[in-house]
Design brief:
Blueprint lengths: L1 H17 L12 H4 L11 H5 L32 H5 L12 H14 L1 H4 L31 H4 L3 H10 L13 H18 L18
Helix pairs in contact: 5-9, 8-9
Amino acid sequence: MKKLSIIIVLVALVAWSCNDVRRSPGRVYMPDMAYSRAVETYSSLDTLHAQGINYYALPVPGTIKRGELLPFPLPMDKQGDSTNYVLAKQIANPLTVLSPKQLTEAERLYLVNCGICHGKALDGNGVLHKRTDGTDGPYGAAPAKLVGNIKYEDMPAGQMFYSVTYGKGQMGSYASQLSTTQRWMVIQYIKAKQAESKGGTTTAAAATADTTAKK
């Protein structure tokens, strides 16, 4: 009987203690890591900032994506200056040879991003060019011919990269549409097509490397 009484008392104590559950764990070290905060797609970050959560959905400054090439070392020239545009001639394309897979991807990137202006055949007859043959596009300024034009055939890859990265003339920047690696791939594709137009080859093994910088 005595043992039964003891058991009843213990059960009662356990039941009583369970009704006083502690809802807060107290202080937590690094709560942002202990508790997940979901971020809805396309939602404003103001709600998180109001809670003191400094999340900006941007890479840490100075970091580079794994497998990505180093960023372009020259900043954009200020209005009226062309110092860095000229210096860009000295920067060689790090992708001197494209594999067959890379060459196919480079062609796709060119057609999607560049072909609408510069043309599928790099002849400046893209669909956005306003012409008089019944296939007029919305823009009157004729895009540059990348093949059959000595100015662009002799232009070093680094200077092309500068133009694609920061924009030049009527062409805007493509830095947000194409990664550093993709921009170099497209330029290497253009150089290969230019070499082909001169009677060279356009195979992946013989894709043209950057020419000696011209000043």
